[in-house]
Write a structure and sequence with these properties.
Length: about 220
C-alpha cells in the first residue's frame, strides 16, 4: 500500500502534468481528421512523443493514486467499502487502457518503425488508439461516481468534495452517453471534464494536508 503522502502527491501533480503535456504539444482540434493529426505528430515526432509520454505518466499518476485511495477505504464493515472496492477496480482498468493506447500511438507516429515499414497501417492504428483513449472517460465517470459516494459515506474527506466528485462523474458519464457534439449533453460532459482535474487536485491537497497533520 502506498503512503498517504505519495497518494496525495500523485493526485495533486497528475492533473497539473496532464495540462502541461497539452501545452507542450496540442495534437489538434475536433475539426482535424485523424490523418491530419497523425501527419502533424509525425512531423513533430520528438515533441509529440514527449507530450504523449507526459500525458501517459499523468494519467497513470492520477489513477494509481485513485486506486490506492480507494483501496485504503476498503475495510470490512466500513460504510462505502464496497463502492470504494468497485472504484479501485475501474481505476486499475483505466491504467491498463492507457498503457495499450499509449503503445499503439507511439507505433503509429514513428515513421521509421519496422512495423510501419513492413506495411502496417499507421492511420488505422492511430484511429484505434484514439478510440481506446476516449473510452477512458466512460470508465472515469464510473470511478468518480463510485469514489465520490464512498467518500460521502465514510466521511474520511470533506463530504462536499465527495459530492462534487460524484456530480462531475455523473456529468462525464451521462453527458458522454447522450452527447451529440455541441448539444446540451455535450455541455454537461464538458462541465464534468473540467471539474475532474480540479476536484482531483483538491483531493490530493486534502490527503497531503491530512498526512502532515498526522505526522505532527
Amino acid at each position: 500500500m502506498l503512503s498517504k503522502k505519495l497518494i496525495g502527491t500523485f493526485m495533486l501533480a497528475g492533473p497539473i502534468l496532464a495540462v502541461l503535456s497539452l501545452v507542450l504539444f496540442e495534437p489538434g482540434g475536433d475539426d482535424q481528421t485523424f490523418a491530419q493529426t497523425l501527419q502533424r505528430m509525425s512531423e513533430n515526432y520528438i515533441l509529440a512523443s514527449i507530450s504523449n509520454v507526459a500525458w501517459f505518466v499523468a494519467v497513470m499518476m492520477i489513477f494509481v493514486g485513485i486506486y490506492y485511495l480507494a483501496r485504503s477505504m476498503q475495510e470490512e464493515n466500513k460504510p462505502g467499502s464496497d463502492l470504494a472496492g468497485l472504484a479501485s477496480i475501474f481505476a486499475l482498468l483505466i491504467a491498463g487502457i492507457a498503457m495499450v493506447a499509449m503503445g499503439l500511438q507511439l507505433i503509429a507516429t514513428e515513421r521509421a518503425s519496422s512495423w510501419v515499414t513492413s506495411g502496417g497501417d499507421a492511420l488505422s492504428v492511430f484511429a484505434i488508439s484514439e478510440a481506446i483513449s476516449r473510452s477512458i472517460f466512460v470508465f472515469d465517470g464510473i470511478v468518480m461516481v463510485l469514489l465520490g459516494l464512498a467518500i460521502i459515506k465514510q466521511k474520511n474527506l470533506s463530504p462536499i468534495v465527495g459530492g462534487l466528485l460524484a456530480f462531475f462523474g455523473a456529468c462525464v458519464l451521462f453527458g458522454g452517453m447522450f452527447s451529440q457534439g455541441d448539444n446540451w449533453a455535450g455541455m454537461i460532459w464538458f462541465i464534468g471534464f473540467l471539474g475532474f482535474p480540479l476536484i482531483t487536485i483538491t483531493i490530493g491537497f486534502l490527503i497531503l494536508k491530512s498526512s502532515k497533520e498526522n505526522v505532527s
